[in-house]
Structure formats: structure tokens, C-alpha cells
Here is the input.
Amino acid sequence: MPVLHTLRRAGAVLLLAAAAALCTAPAPPAAADEPGWTAEPAAGTAAAVRPYFYLAGAPGTVLEDRLALVNTTDRERTLTLRGADAHNTADGALAVRPATAAAPATPGAGSWISFGTATTVTVPPRTRAVVPFTLTVPPASAPGDHPAAVVATEAGREVAVRVHLRVDGPTLAALTVEDVAVRGRGRSAAIAYTLVNRGNVALTPELRIRTDALIGDAPAAPRARTLPVELLPGQRVELTEPWPGAPALDRVRVTVTVTASGGARGEAGGSRWLVPGGLPGWTGAGLLGLGASAAALYRVRGRRPDPGPAPDAPPEAGPTTPAPHHELTGAAR
Here is the structure.
């Protein structure tokens, strides 16, 4: 019994020590990439959450909106605000022009945004600040979409909030497909193509691909789908579609068709020999090409009309007993 009593006391002491350690343990440090502040469109009169700013007006109009800055930390934050042009990166993502980039020859909608004297804002701890800004549409602005963003910066970290601006006037939805090609082989094959927005409104393209084979059955094409890309006016993006069902040895033709709302449509195609790597593959491709050429020649020769007997041909002279006949492939009898 004394031993059992001692063990119970020791267990109780250990439990109390563990509880004390949990109570006094410091809180885990915040993640290193935790910014401590956010920037977003201020809620409107209906207190609706807006993912971005949407502004519209005629040339010469001054538009107004508000940016909300929220400091979630226990120290004040000093943020720098600016407007910036938005564009597509080469792979279709949306990006903004860096503050250090040279000014473009034709300033975009980012230069139309002004925060007045509030280009630098200090937000106290645990505080939400609302900063108004204006967007002045120049009188000679072209109609259509003009992508831009408002950018908040602190200590090298930037948060961009998109500004979707549409200037009143006629709109045109138009795009083209260019540079269609098949890259790689086997399960790593992919269909590459370029999309160009030739109109003045942003487009969300829908993709459809048709594939045809010269020798074998038509291989399965990538499925039709809506692309996760918003193609801005005047922008060019280079995209690829995986094609794991590509044949190992054949000549294929790929036709890429892209459509978007507003009647936009573009189509282009490209072809390529798909062969296994190495000399044996190229040898097989050569034989395959020779076979395809021979088949085409046979079809052409098969359609050639029979000239028939020559006019006024003299009767053949010969013995009354027919001579033995030796048949040769392709020789006339």
C-alpha cells in the first residue's frame, strides 16, 4: 500500500506540472508570410462584398470609389497607394505594371486613378481605414474595357485590387488563334497555341480541339472546356493543352477553335509527324510515309481511265495453237 500511494502522488505531481507548462507556454509565432493587413473594395450601401471595383462612364467622366485598408496587428501600418495598368502575363495570368517600370508610350487606365493627398496612409492598430479615390476618364478615351488596379504597398509587399473600367461606346468581341503546334511525344505530348484579343472587351474563351490522323484512327482530343483565363483587350497569351492520348507513330493534324461571348470566334490548325525517339522511330516514320505515298499513288493510278485498243490496230499474227501465258504482277495481258 505505501508503494501504491507513492506512485499515485508522483502521477498527480506530473499531471500538475504538465498543466502548468501548458498554461505558461508562449503562443506560437505568427507565420512569416502573414502580412497583418488587407486591402479590398469598401462595402457599398448594401454592404455587399465586392471582389473588385467595377466602374463605367463616358469619356470625360470623373468616377469615384473607396478602398478599405484593415490593420489586424497591434502596431500601426504605413501603406503607399497608387494606380497601375493591368495586363496578361504570357501564360494568361493577370498582373499589374510595377511602380519601377518605365511609363508606357500611351498611358493606360492606371494613370487615370488618383488618391489625391492620401498616397501614403497610416493605419492604427486593429483599425479599418477607408480611403476615397477618383478615376478621371480622358475625353478622347476609346470605348470598351480598360484594365487597371489600385495597389497598396508596405515594406516591399504589394496587394493589388482590380479595377474593371468600361468606357461607354461601341464594343467589339474578336479574337484569333495562332501558332498551333504539337510538342513532345507519347504521354508527354501537348498542343500549344496562342490567343490574341483583337477586340476592345475582356473575353473568357471556350476551347474546342479536333484531331485527325493520316494512317490510324483519329486519336482522342483534349476535352472541350472554358479556359481559366480572362483575356484582356490587345493582349496575347501562349497556352498548352496536355494530350496524353496522342499516337506514338502517325501524322496528326490539330484544329483549335476558340469562342467567347459577343460572337468572338477564332480557329487555326497545325500538323506534325509523331514518332518514337531515336533512329528506329525515324526509320518507322520513313516507312510509314513511304506507305502513305504509295497508297496515294495507287489511288491516283486506279482512277486513270482505260485507253482501250489503239485505233486501226492490225490483227495479230500467230500460230493457231495459243502460246503458254506467264502472268506478271502489273503487266497488261
Remarks:
- The first strand starts at residue 37 and ends at 41.
- The CA atoms of residues 85 and 107 lie 8 Å apart.
